[in-house]
Amino acid sequence: MTTTPTGRLRPDAHAVSGRGRLRARRLAVAGNRSFAPGAGAARRAAIDEVTRTWLTGLFEDAGGGGLDGVALAAVGSLGRHESGPLSDLDLVLLHDGRALGERALGELADRLWYPLWESGLKLDHSVRSVRESRRVADVDLPALVGLLELDRVAGDELVVAAARTTVGHDWRARARERLPELLDSVRARHERYGELAQSQVLDLKEGRGGLRDVTVLAALTAAWLTDRTRVGVAEAHTMLLDVRDAVQVVTGRPSSRLRMEDRDAVAALLGFTDPDDLLAEVARAGDDVTWALEMTMRRARQASAARALRVGPRRPTLVPLGHGVHEHDGEAVLGAGADTTDPVLPLRTAVVAARAGLPLSPATLTTLAGCPDLPTPWPPLARELLTDLLGSGDGLRQVWAGLVHAGLVERWLPEWSAVRSRPQHNPVHRHTVDRHTVEAVVQAAAGTRDVARADLLVLSALLHDIGKVAGAHDHSEEGARRAGPILARWGWPEDDAAVVVRLVREHLTLVDLATRRDVEDPATTEALLTAVDRRADILDLLTALSRADARAAGPGAWTPWRSTLVDTLTASARRAITRGTDEPGTPLEPETVSVDEDARATLAAGRSHVVTEPTPGGHRVRVLATDRAGLFSRTAAVLAADGMTIRRARLRTADGVADDVWDVELPGGGAPDPERIRRALDRREPPRRRPAPRRGHAPAGPPARAFVVPGGSWDATVLEVRADDRVGLLADLGEVVAGHGCSLRSAHVSTRAGQACDTLVVTGADGRALAPGASAALLGDLMVAADGPDRG
User: Fold this and answer.
1) Tens of pLDDT along 249-300?
2) 331-341 as b/e, with b when 16 or more CB fall inside 10 Å?
3) Which of 418, 437, 511, 605 has the most CB atoms within 10 Å of its CB?
4) CB-based contacts of 103, cutoff 8 Å, min separation 6
5) Helix axis angle, 362-369 relative to 396-405, nearest 10°?
6) Which helix (H) or strand (E) holds 747?
7) What SS3 state is found at 756?
8) CATH class for the domain made up of 2-169
């Protein structure tokens, strides 16, 4: 032994070299060719054995062998038996406070730490008694998380067990108190290091969804606040460890960051022929860990809040959201009477949750995953619900993520698996293909006011990058090729499907023309006109899709300069389409009303005539009544009083008789009562409205739009109103029309992707089209009414 300048003893150099360098031994194990590519678990087991054997020998040589109340313990990767080739050592010389005096402990520590400093590995070390470990854990949260996984390397097992048990007991006792601190630290780390699945440089340890989050999962489980969400976590954890090990072998550094320049070598070491396949697997692993962590943290918060009440089992507080779905503890849950044999139930439940801005609970996702598959082709209701879900806005993100992890998205859209977690190498893109797609759908939902067919817009956003698969030369063409069969499988009419396929094929055309060609050149306008088949409706859809795609890509993809160029080009194309069509409108064809003898008798007696019939996914209500002012708004209010969702409506008046057909859904199931509707229509007092279902945390959509349809008719004014659909919307619009002294000659109402698109044919008190000033005043009030009372 030699003496250090501080007077402490140090092992002789030959004693250190005699044990060999631990770093070299670990790398020799990692490079052993007997391990097959990807055999990370076997490598880690071998590295763990080499490390522990080396440390045990060192502990014995240092004089620790055979001492009661003293042990060498590990936390971190070695404590979890997850050591990589160059992972740091995080060791604790643990004692019971009685076995050795302070001087003897210091000398023993010197004989341990000096050889480790020269071993070629980074060392984090401490000397603590069981009581000191407890005090440190009480004030240092990262130390607490590490000590929960304290593991014996050599020495007295009892002292290690005492420290681990004591720290675990204290953590469980104070978990509710310390949970906010833990969750805040997780959020701060995520903000600093970003999301593993969506980063250019993949931080396998600290990033959101990385190895550190797996440790947090274990800590939350150890607190007994929640069961660990295990779906996909074990496989994801193994994948992240394998890639970390390969990074350390390839770089020769104790790093957990996969950089671009190392991807090819790491992929080859792990047996991937395409580095993109490696990146996709890492992103998917990070996504699985992130999902599990979010679920577990939510469960921990719920359990902590319940424990704070200091009461026994409590009845769950359920707030109805409609269609058998309820809010409970910040999640959307299915009620007990849900029909799990209904293949449409998952879509219906997802729509309600997304509109309320709530995630689906894990139990509900499990239930929905057990529902039968939808038939091929899909029924009309399923198509409508899919576009309702896609049009739900910000609430889509967390609901879609839940559906993906439950396996439902790939059951509806098997092609999703090929783009899930697929990397993108264009620097303008900040997300993987699947995440970008969801963001594009959310952005498209915000632009539904600008198009007449919101459903086709959100569908095209969902499918616009479905062709970004391995080996695709032109993802737009590949996407169009795939989109056709998808839409046929979903049962979309051929004309609608053709529009979506065109949009997928041309989704890059508008921005490319605007930024790479002269927007003032007629040839550029002609190229755009060809792309949209010279149709104004497709031009509007392509413009909205291009804007959504660019905004979803990242802040650098949609700039004011680019927006100006696009606006200039689309304005030129729109002028070309409408040139020569700005002629006065023609009279609308006269409406006809067919009234049978029973209905005539009822009308003659001064009563309304109401009949109902079931339709796929809902019911049709036909109302025949003597036409009178306010009939439209009153009928809509009567239907809204029972909470009915109006999907479509066709209203017409002829010979003093109103013939109104309403396609409706009832949130609670069942069928409309025609006699009840008739009595409510003929009653003098106004119907009492039922409150609309809660939107939860979901923000309101963009402001409503209302405008005059040019050339709609020369003897009437044709108005179009676009707004978020809600219970009571049509009643509000009808009241505005009646309040302006106008008559509603006919109306065509449709709801697509959660967007109400209502065409109203109105006349003034003189039975003629409205004057410009009267039209403007009516439009302003319609927009205010369409926005509803909650905006602001």
Assistant:
1) 888 888 899 998 999 999 998 889 999 999 999 999 999 999 999 988 888 8
2) bbbbeeebeee
3) 437
4) none
5) 60
6) strand 743-752
7) strand
8) alpha beta
